[in-house]
Design goal:
mainly alpha
Length: 190
């Protein structure tokens, strides 16, 4: 088989990073290199032509996942014509939805990678990216009254509990309770 062009090699690398980002969010960073490459439609042997190590891929995949999250925040703000409170509430409602609960591969890296970063993050660049991503997300959720950490903790905890109780009515109750807790209080009528 002949050599691939530089453009094809870059496209293959992007495909591996994107697929790894999804698989890590869905299954954790313990997914094997062979599984990753198979999921990307490439051979296992090509991995080390693209990446120095699995840790290097984890670093890139986590960066990619947080890039997607930042894009979602920007898109949501744009959709709400710069009305930050409305954009925040829309994001909260989507975050605490059955759809997000059931699709971790395309979901929030904060929730999906928390255990891996706590267990294996250590000196990985991915751990620094993760920490910065948590800070950025909490700042995005901040209001005039709070810094956003409590909102993020409520969202994250609710999503993790909802995923852990997915096949019971408790799951949707958790999501609903968290949405209610994070919704603005109704304004009294004049």
């Amino acid at each position: 088989m002949g050599r691939v062009s530089q453009a094809q090699a870059q496209a293959n690398r992007r495909r591996v990073v994107e697929r790894a980002s999804q698989l890590f969010r869905e299954q954790g960073t313990s997914v094997s290199v062979a599984e990753l490459m198979h999921a990307a439609g490439l051979t296992h042997g090509g991995f080390y032509k693209q990446f120095a190590s699995k840790e290097a891929l984890i670093d890139e995949a986590v960066t990619h996942a947080f890039g997607e999250l930042a894009e979602r925040h920007a898109t949501t703000l744009k959709e709400h014509k710069g009305h930050r409170a409305e954009a925040q509430q829309s994001l909260i409602d989507g975050y605490l939805s059955v759809r997000h609960r059931d699709n971790p591969a395309s979901g929030c890296p904060v929730a999906a990678l928390a255990t891996d970063m706590a267990r294996d993050g250590g000196d990985l660049a991915a751990h620094r990216t993760y920490t910065e991503g948590v800070q950025d997300f909490s700042q995005w959720l901040a209001t005039d009254d709070e810094d956003g950490i409590a909102r993020l903790c409520t969202m994250l905890g609710a999503l993790l509990l909802a995923r852990a109780t997915k096949d019971s009515p408790v799951s949707e109750q958790v999501l609903s309770a968290a949405r209610t807790a994070l919704s603005p209080a109704p304004q009294p009528r004049a």
